[in-house]
Amino acid sequence: MMLQQQGINLLHIATKWRKEGIVDELLNTNRWLARSLDSQQSSPLHIAAEEGWLEIAKKLSSFAPETCGWRNCQSMNPIHVAAMNGRVEILEELLPINCLAARERVYRGQTVLHLCVEYRQLGALKFLVGKLGDLVEAEDEDGETVLHWAVRSNQLEMIKYLAEGKTIIKNTMNSMGKTALKILQESPRDTTTNNYSEIETILLSLPDESEHELLKMSDTTMMVVVLIATVAFQATLSPPGGFWQDDSPTHKAGKAVMASTHPTKYQEFVAANMAAIVSSLIILFFMTTGLLSKFLLIRIFAYCAMVLSLIFIVTSYNISVTVIAPDKGTQPVLLRLIWIVVVIVMVIVMIMAFILGTSTKNEYSLVTNATPSIVESCATGPTVCFPGLWLVSITTDSYKVSENSLKVQSGIPISFDLKIKIKIVVCGCSDSDMGEGAVICRARCYRVTCDYTLQMRFWKF
């Protein structure tokens, strides 16, 4: 009667006491017993995971694999139970059956890795980090990662292991604004183990957020750089217009058509693609040698090379479009204007991205004071101009920088308000604007006016 009140059946008891023969007989007689729950909402698989009975766990999971994700009254599934008891062999068996169950959170948003740290199960932690490495950065409801937990409980070996992975950020703060180092400094000194200085040294050696982001972005950056180099290489081998298929007095078979019809633009096209390839190879060299993570100057140089490679690719694309587009009216002028605006925007955005990325914390906003306008205006008199020659003028009418500083609890923010008004004027003549043999035309001019206020706030700790 007492067993019935507790919801325990013979399979629960046989599993608890590792009676494999009885477990086999019960499962063969009534396979639904594997899905039965006791008063704690624990299935027989929960019990096998807690005790570490591997063979019984295999049989139970084969009869009822869905129980791998069932939660007991403590909101734990069998994978959680195995982790908190250090049953690595059970984890090896259950994880392939239901990997998503290992990612489920328990009370207060803790992950399975938090449980390993809480119950001091280093072996289970090592196994799970190898399978679910992204959970190392996961935070609970208090904003604390496994590193916060390990430091608070003074677990030196776990801290050493987590530091070896280089995926932990030393300045990650919890909801109270405390880093792992701050928690260590506020905790009472352990005079028996004397781990304070060693843990402090490990925490100080961890990468900060900017270094961590650099490591995370390395694979993506390499993929982008390789893509740019591939596009530039392919564009050089497949120029706009293709290749001549026959020989004639003016050209030879296999030569680029663009080299004969637009020799100047072809030279610019090849030079832009070559520069893009060289810039990409420079970045690849720095990434493969590991110099990016060691020297700030090299990171700045590589960042400039990335900006140049993108600009050269855009330039190559603009030349291609200009060559294959029909030369009618103002179209070449507009294409050149669009190219100039795109390049300027790219440079500004990338410079700002680099500046903002170097601060530990930042806020910024862009306020449009006036809608950007493009106005066509013709020169008042004849202007000496040749086809394909464009004159570009960029002027800054006004700018204003205001600086304010405000001391706060987490650091000192420095705010800047940058107000700038830019005018871009592009003048030139297209082939259709000029008669045959003419060297003087009334140039078409376009004026772009931009008026913005960029508000930035940087936190320096």
Provide an overview of this structure.
With 461 residues, the chain is of the alpha+beta class. The protein has three domains: 2-206, Serine Threonine Protein Phosphatase 5, Tetratricopeptide repeat, CATH 1.25.40.20; 207-324, no CATH class; 360-461, no CATH class. It has helices at 2-5, 10-16, 20-29, 44-51, 54-63, 78-84, 88-94, 99-102, 112-118, 122-131, 146-152, 156-164, 180-186, 196-205, 209-237, 257-261, 263-289, 296-324, 331-358; strands at residues 361-378, 383-384, 390-405, 412-428, 440-441, 444-460. The strands form two sheets. The chain has a four-stranded antiparallel sheet, covered by helices on one side. Strands 2-5 form a two-stranded antiparallel sheet. β3 (390-405) and β4 (412-428) form a beta hairpin. α2 runs parallel beside α4, α6 (78-84) runs parallel beside α9 (112-118) and α18 (296-324) runs antiparallel to α19. The chain is elongated and about 95 Å long. The two termini are 65 Å apart. The model is unreliable at 359-369, 377-416, 430-443 and 457-461 (pLDDT under 50).
| Run of helices and strands | HHHHHHHHHHHHHHHHHHHEEEEEE
The CATH topology of the largest domain corresponds to Serine Threonine Protein Phosphatase 5, Tetratricopeptide repeat
User: Could you describe the largest sheet, including whether it forms a barrel?
Assistant: 4 strands, antiparallel
The CA-CA distance between the termini, in Å, is 65 Å
User: How would you classify the quaternary structure?
Assistant: single chain
Strand order, biggest sheet? 1-6-4-3
Shape: elongated
The CATH H-level homologous superfamily of the largest domain: Ankyrin repeat-containing domain
Domains (count) = 3
Radius of gyration, in angstroms, nearest whole number = 33 Å
Task: Give the CATH architecture of the largest domain.
Answer: Alpha Horseshoe
Low-confidence stretches: 359-369, 377-416, 430-443, 457-461
Per DSSP, what share of the residues sits in E-state strands of 2 or more residues?
15-25%
- Mean pLDDT equals 76
Helix count, DSSP H or I runs of 4 or more residues: 19
Give the tally of β-strands.
6
Structural class, from secondary structure content? alpha+beta
